[in-house]
Design goal:
Blueprint: H1 6-11, H2 26-32, H3 43-68, H4 70-74, H5 91-112, H6 116-134, H7 142-162, H8 168-193, H9 197-200, H10 209-231, H11 234-240, H12 250-265, H13 273-280, H14 282-300
Helix pairs in contact: 2-7, 3-5, 3-6, 3-7, 5-6, 6-7, 7-8, 8-10, 10-12, 12-14, 13-14
Amino acid sequence: MVGLSLPPLLRVLRPHQWSKNVFVLAALVFALGDRTSSLPPAAMARSIAAFFAFSLVASSIYLVNDILDVAGDRAHPIKRKRPIAAGEVAIGVAWVLSFVCLAAGLVLAFLLAGGRAVVQVLLAYTVLNLVYSSWLKHVVLVDAFCIAAGFQLRLMAGGYAAGVGISHWAVLCTLFLALFLALSKRRAELVLMGESGLEHRSSLKNYNVPFLDQMIAVLAACTIVAYTMYTVDPSNAEKFGEGHGLLWTIPFVVFGLGRYMVLTQSGDGGDNPTRIFLGGDAWFLANTLAWVAVVLLAMAN
């Protein structure tokens, strides 16, 4: 029966995209090294539950997006292989699966991930993405800001689940980074699809490569500045101790952004950021692991 084979049903949930939800865990990770306050005993369990709740809701949205975009995806050289576009998962089955994922995510958030506050963030994320999928994804620049807002909501959910506050500089850094990734993906789509890309995403007609290159460069600079301001924020000296060493993580951020720009402009994976982050490029992966190691050492100092 169409739509009931197990591999397509798993692939249609896009579990590889769940890696984006590590932003939900950011508040917990940086709070672990905070010497000025102690985490609630259940903070780790709630944060992990929030990660999976967000992942389930995100899968629900991916399903809706694939249903609404089925015609455009069939015209895309890569996205036409998605289970719904390829006819491996029936649209009716996809609707049911989307509802199940949404309900499961909200119930998990309410029972295990921090209750009402996390549920409210998930509902805001759902509404944002439904409006995005049906309308705003076709509006130039607004589409990128919607994606960035989704990452802000991930940070908020993680903060509520862990019971800790989020640095303003961390919020700004996430905003700029998300915009950088979103516009890098648009650039890759524009180069890959050319004129035929208008069938897939009408907002592409208002983008051009020179404009996107300028915006990407500006956003990379903004990300570096915001991250630098976060690392030198006086509050971090109180949290992680004097000479905590977060400053030494800046070169890894600069290299990571530069490497990502090289990959995007060479046409090697810019249309699929998740593939790059999950090891599609050995240099990028090694740099990311080194950044994580230095961050952990800095907080443990």
